[in-house]
Each structure stands twice: as C-alpha cells, then as structure tokens.
Specification:
With 306 residues, the chain is mainly alpha-helical. It contains seven helices and four strands; from the N terminus they run ααααββαβααβ. α1 packs antiparallel against α5.
Length: 306
C-alpha cells in the first residue's frame, strides 16, 4: 500500500486565527463598552423619566390644590359678601327700630305728660279751696314765726310805743289778709257750687250727633344727626277742651303711618301768599330772606291722598 505524506503549512491559518482572536477581543471590549454605555443611557433615561414623572405629579397636585384654593376663595368671598349684605340689613333694621322706638317713646311721653297734667288739673279742680289752703295758706302758717314782729324785752319808752304801733299795724295787716282769705274761700265755694250746677244735669237731654272738620298740621323733623325723626301734631285750640285736643292728637298720631302721601306739582297759592307775607314782616336781613325764599321754592310738597 502506498503511503503519501503531505506537509500542510498552518501559519496562515494561525495568523488568521490570531487576528480573529484579536478581533474577538476588540469586539468583547466594544461589547463591554457598549453595555456600559447602554447601562448609563438606561440610567439617564430612567432618571429623566422619574424626574419628568415627579414634575408632572407635582404639577398635577399643584394644579389640583390651586383649583381647590380658588374654589375655597370664591366660597369665602361669596360668604363674606353675604355677611356684609346681612350686616347692612341688620344695621338698617337697627336704625329703623331705633327711629321707631324714639318716635313711640316721644309719642307716649307726650301722652303720659298730658295725662299727668290733665289729672293734676282735675284733682285740683275737684276741691280747689282745699288745694289752695294746702299749697298756699299752710306754708304761710308754718312761716308765721318768721313773719311776726319781735319786741325787745328791755328798751326805752319811746321805742316801746313805736314797737307797739308796729305790732298793732302788723296784726291789722294779718287780720286783713285773714278776712281776704275767708272772703276768697267763700267766693270759691260759691263758684264751685255754680260750676257743679252747670255740670250736673237735672234731667236727661238728648243730643244729635254731628260731624265737624278740623284743620290738623302734621310736622315731621329730624332731631339728631342719626336721621331719627319726630312727628308733631298741631290743631287749633279754639272751642276745644284739653281732653278733646289730646284725643284728636292721639287718633291722628296712631294713623300717621297708614297715611298715603302724594307729591304736588306746584305750591298752593294761599300757602305761598302767607309765606311771602310772613317773610316780608320778618325782621331779618335781605340775604336771609332771599335764601329762605329760595329754599321755599326748591322744596317738594306732599299732601295726604284721601
């Protein structure tokens, strides 16, 4: 059998394998570098994503909180406006109640003062002599010691005679006053009897009811700087008793709030004529007269709508 021996040169393959090995090493180095770069890129990307997520979440929470704050502020502003409006309404109610209280207190004060004066006058008229005695004569009697003339226990004859004359004249004066008081007392009794005879009717009489019209002046004015108003009623007292006047004033005062007023287009001719007459007779300067006339023409008038 034939034998063949061949010699194969492996140096090129070895060199090639060596170069491949070098390339593999370079590739390994590149892969490691690439892996490191990828890791760093992923880390940067993760940091970027986390940072953006955090910013977005913070912006979302901030936006939600801003919306809640704005909503709360709007509610607080609305409540504050409501409270201010209610405060104004309460202050207006307070002012109206104060004006009503002042008007009612003034009205009832006038009524009770009038009743007190009327009752006092009636009590005095019931027994006028006794009241005159209690109010006038008792005081004189209690002061008689100071009004009597004292005499000097030790004096000369001339002074004694003069003192006796003074005492006698004083006694005569006191006697004259006593006689005058008795005379007045009797005359008052006589006048009281005549008054009772006119008041007390001997028989029942029937009177026919009738209606009369009386002029009434209603005056309203401010009496302080808080715009508190007072109403005053004036009527003509001729032919009317004090009780009748008070009754008419009370009835008009109770119906003042229910009266309906209407504006007048022009001033009444009689009122204007009366005002011009009073203004012409007034003892004031021409400047004051001109200002009063100007205010009179610029004023608005109202009358009761009956």
């Amino acid at each position: 059998m034939a034998t063949f021996n061949y010699t194969v040169d492996t140096n090129p393959m070895a060199q090639t394998i060596g170069s491949v090995s070098n390339h593999v090493k370079a590739t390994t180095t590149a892969v490691v570098a690439m892996q490191t770069a990828v890791i760093m890129a992923e880390e940067k990307a993760a940091d970027f994503v986390c940072e953006n997520v955090n910013k977005g979440f913070f912006a979302l929470l901030r936006s939600q909180n801003s919306q809640k704050i704005a909503e709360a502020l709007s509610k607080v502003d609305s409540f504050l406006m409501q409270l201010n409006q209610q405060t104004k309404q309460l202050l207006a109610i307070k002012g109206r109640m104060e004006r009503d209280y002042n008007r009612i207190s003034v009205r009832y004060m006038k009524i009770f003062n009038g009743l007190n004066i009327n009752l006092k006058q009636r009590v005095i008229e019931l027994d006028k002599p006794v009241m005159n005695f209690a109010l006038r004569e008792v005081e004189k009697i209690s002061n008689r010691n100071r009004q009597l003339t004292a005499t000097v226990p030790v004096s000369q004859m001339e002074s004694i005679s003069i003192s006796q004359k003074i005492v006698a004249s004083h006694v005569k004066n006191r006697g004259f006053k006593a006689v005058g008081a008795m005379t007045k007392f009797l005359s008052d009794i006589y006048e009281q009897k005549k008054l009772n005879s006119r008041i007390m009717l001997s028989s029942v009489s029937y009177f026919e009811n009738s209606t009369i019209s009386l002029p009434v002046v209603i005056t309203e004015y401010n009496f302080d700087k808080y715009n508190n108003k007072n109403v005053e009623i004036n009527i003509q007292p001729i032919g009317l008793s004090k009780q009748t006047q008070d009754t008419i004033k009370n009835v008009v005062m109770s119906n003042v709030d229910n009266m309906k007023w209407q504006n007048e287009a022009k001033i009444n001719r009689e009122i204007r004529s009366e005002f011009n007459t009073i203004l012409a007779k007034a003892n004031i300067s021409s400047r004051v007269k001109d200002m009063a006339n100007k205010l009179f023409l610029a004023n608005n008038y109202q009358t009761v709508n009956i």
